[in-house]
Amino acid sequence: xxxxxxxxxxxxxxxxxxxxxxxxxxxxxxxxxxxxxxxxxxxxxxxxxxxxxxxxxxxxxxxxxxxxxxxxxxxxxxxxxxxxxxxxxxxxxxxxxxxxxxxxxxxxxxxxxxxxxxxxxxxxxxxxxxxxxxxxxxxxxxxxxxxxxxxxxxxxxxxxxxxxxxxxxxxxxxxxxxxxxxxxxxxxxxxxxxxxxxxxxxxxxxxxxxxxxxxxxxxxxxxxxxxxxxxxxxxxxxxxxxxxxx
Length: 246
Hints:
mainly alpha
């Protein structure tokens, strides 16, 4: 397909020089129809936020577990880490989502609903990126911190939990915030398997109202608000846990 042929249409859309009749009445809160449509769209926040938060927490936990072998001197563990990270990062999120939703119930003889299929797929996909974030953050800690913890008689797990990870968290907080934004955006893909998130509800309303530009514009604003709130929360948390300089 030659996408260059569509550039005149893009110019016309940006300049407003088209015959398209905007129908913002579909989302007008002063009318009963508009209020109903707005309520329907806004109800999707619940599933979007829930699946993003749960996937983020699980991906952080799994990512930390995957990252630890990369810090080992054992070559089999190092190879295990690299294989997992490279394979998972190479699989498109949508493909992984469809495989989890349709493949896991068949192969493992289990019942899996839309929500938890989305959680599992997003967790697996994100865990590979989280593993790299944790690996980089832990390796950035000065070797003297490790030696100081060992001189106090701390074993490996207590050293990581009490000394290394708290310091690494300060360094990896911005990347973690970026990854949460990534999960929020990727959660829109769960709409293809039927979860009533923001994107799914927008698609359903488009089918009923035949006003895609208005509805998808509102959908963009919904995700924009979510991501701006997350960005502000991450910046606030950065300031809260930052080490003061005197």
